[in-house]
Amino acid sequence: MHDTANYKLAFENHLIDKHALRRELKRKRRSLSPDQQRQASISLCQRLKRLPEVRRAKRISLYLPVNGEIDPTLLLPWLRQRSVEVYLPVLRPFSTNQLWFVKYRDTTPMVKNRFGITEPCTRFAANRRHRLPAWALDTLIVPLVGFDAEANRMGMGGGFYDRSLAFMRRNGPSPTLIGVAHACQQVKALPVEPWDIPLDAVVSDLMSVRPTKTG
Ligand SMILES: Nc1nc2c(c(=O)[nH]1)N(C=O)[C@@H](CNc1ccc(C(=O)N[C@@H](CCC(=O)O)C(=O)O)cc1)CN2
Ligand SMILES: Nc1ncnc2c1ncn2[C@@H]1O[C@H](COP(=O)(O)OP(=O)(O)OP(=O)(O)O)[C@@H](O)[C@H]1O
């Protein structure tokens, strides 16, 4: 009889912790100075350029940073030079918290979405020639709010990436997932949720972590 109540309490506490932790980590990254932001992004991108999964990618998705997120777009000139196709996440209209991955070039028409994040405009994105299914990307650079030493991730809480990558639970082609964040966004341990899609690595301005292999 008490079990249900206890479970419910534990569940709710876990949610409260997760909300509080997310808020705290978002505050932390927003409080970095412009100079710290710039240095961290330079150092992140130097690390990313050395990763085999980034070096061999011909199709890669990045994101345009907001609110103190570490900036992966310093990679753009290097990627262009290597003729890598760059994609950005776009909020998919008429579907719950799913992303499209839309081609990003100088000529791509951009708009702000409902979260204030600049993204390729929906009309452009609606054209299938301008986007790719996530499984056809080689590597995704995934924005993180938090991570731990096992490369477990916490995102913005919308479940956008987890939903859009749920196909990776089945067999078939799957892209490499590289989470990125400021080093100060590392926490001791994050809860792993049943719907979480594991990352292949997390890269920060100070280091890279990979999950320890199990099984
Ligand atoms: N730069 C960037 N682009 C991205 C993501 C991201 O994390 N970073 N996403 C990764 O999923 C997707 C967007 N996901 C989001 C999920 C929740 C919130 C959110 O709750 N934002 C505000 C609420 C603001 C509002 O409602 O206007 C918040 O921080 O409180 C924002 C984006 C796609 N694009
Ligand atoms: N594959 C899925 N199908 C349905 N709902 C899902 C799926 N993945 C995640 N969700 C839902 O999305 C919500 C947000 O999940 P969570 O707090 O783990 O977000 P997150 O991992 O921080 O976000 P994001 O994936 O956007 O970075 C949860 O309520 C969860 O139930």
TrEMBL record:
Residues recorded as binding ATP, renumbered to this chain, are 18-22, 153-161
Q: What is this protein called?
A: 5-formyltetrahydrofolate cyclo-ligase
Tell me a GO biological process for this protein: folic acid-containing compound biosynthetic process
What Pfam families does the database record attribute to this sequence?
5-FTHF_cyc-lig (PF01812)
InterPro entries, per the entry: FTHF_cligase (IPR002698), FTHF_cligase-like_sf (IPR024185), NagB/RpiA_transferase-like (IPR037171)
Q: Among its keywords, does the record have ATP-binding?
A: yes
**In the Enzyme Commission scheme, what number(s) does this protein have?**
6.3.3.2
Q: Tell me what reaction this enzyme catalyses.
A: (6S)-5-formyl-5,6,7,8-tetrahydrofolate + ATP = (6R)-5,10-methenyltetrahydrofolate + ADP + phosphate
Q: Please provide, alphabetically and separated by semicolons, the GO molecular function terms listed in this UniProt record.
A: 5-formyltetrahydrofolate cyclo-ligase activity; ATP binding; metal ion binding
Q: Which cofactor does this sequence's record say it needs?
A: Mg(2+)
Annotated keywords = ATP-binding, Ligase, Magnesium, Metal-binding, Nucleotide-binding
Q: Which PANTHER family match?
A: 5-FORMYLTETRAHYDROFOLATE CYCLO-LIGASE, ATPASE INHIBITOR/5-FORMYLTETRAHYDROFOLATE CYCLO-LIGASE
Homology family: Belongs to the 5-formyltetrahydrofolate cyclo-ligase family.
UniProt binding sites for substrate: 64, 69
